[in-house]
Amino acid sequence: MSNSAPRDIQQEELLEMEDQGKRYGSHVEENNEPDACASCCRYILIFFSWVLMFFTFPFCLCASIKIIQEYERAVIFRMGRISGGAKGPGLFFILPCTDEIRIVDQRTISFDVPPQEVLSKDSVTVTVDAVVYFRVFDPVMSVINVENYQGSTRLLAATTLRNILGTKTLAEMLAHRDEVSSELQRLLDSGTDPWGVKVERVEIKDVRLPLQLQRAMAAEAEASREARAKVIAAEGEQNASRALKEAADIMNESPSALQLRYLQTLNTISAEKNSTIIFPLPIDMLKGFGSK
Q: How many CA atoms lie within 13 A of 167 on its CB side?
C-alpha cells in the first residue's frame, strides 16, 4: 500500500503536466495562426500582382520601373513592411499593387530658424535668428522613426536655440558666437541622430537688441571713449611740461643756446608768415629788463 500511493501521485502529476503542455501548445498554435494567415495572404497578393503585371505587360512598366538620382535613396514598403534597405541610385523594379516607395533626398538642406525672443541670463530681452545645415545619413531611419524629419528638425532647432541662449549672458552671446554655435550643433546632432539626420553646421546670423538698450550702450561707449581721451590728453600735457622743464634747464646752463633758439624761432616765423614784420631785440637788453 505504501508503494502504490506514491506511484499514483506521480501519475497524476504527469497527467497534469501533459494537460498543461497541450493547453500551452494549443495557445501557441492559436497565436501563430494569424501570422501564418497573414503571410499566406501576403504571398497570394504578391502572386496576383505578378499575374496582373503579366497580363498588362508592357503597360505596367510605367508603374514598375523607377529611376533614382545619385543624391536620392528609395525606401520600399512591401505589404507594409520594409523590403531590404534603401535602394538606389539607378534603375530598379517594384510591384505596382503591393509596393509603396518613399524617396529621400540626401543632399545638405539649409533653413532659417525664425527669429526667437530670448531672455538672457542677465535679464536682457534679445531677438536671435540662426541658420541650420543638415542632411540625411540613414534614409530608413528618417522614414520609419519620424513622420516628417524636416519639420521635426526645424522645431527642435527653434526650441534648442531658446534653451541654450537662455543660459548665456548678453556679453557671451555677442563675444562668443562660435562657442554658442558649436554647442547648438552638438545638441541638435544628438537629438536628431535617432531620425537618421546629421546636423552639420549651425550659425547665429544676428542678435538684435532693443532700441533703448542700443542707445544706453552707445552712450556708455561714448562716455568711456571721452574719459580715455581726457586721460590721454592729461598724460600728454604732463609729458610736454616735463620735456619743457628739461629744455629750460639745459638752456639756463648755456646762454648761447637761448640765443640760437631765439634765432631759430625768428627763422620759423619768417618762413611761415611772410607778411609779418619782426623787430629783433638783443638778448642782452632783455636781460637788463629782467635784472631790474
A: 7
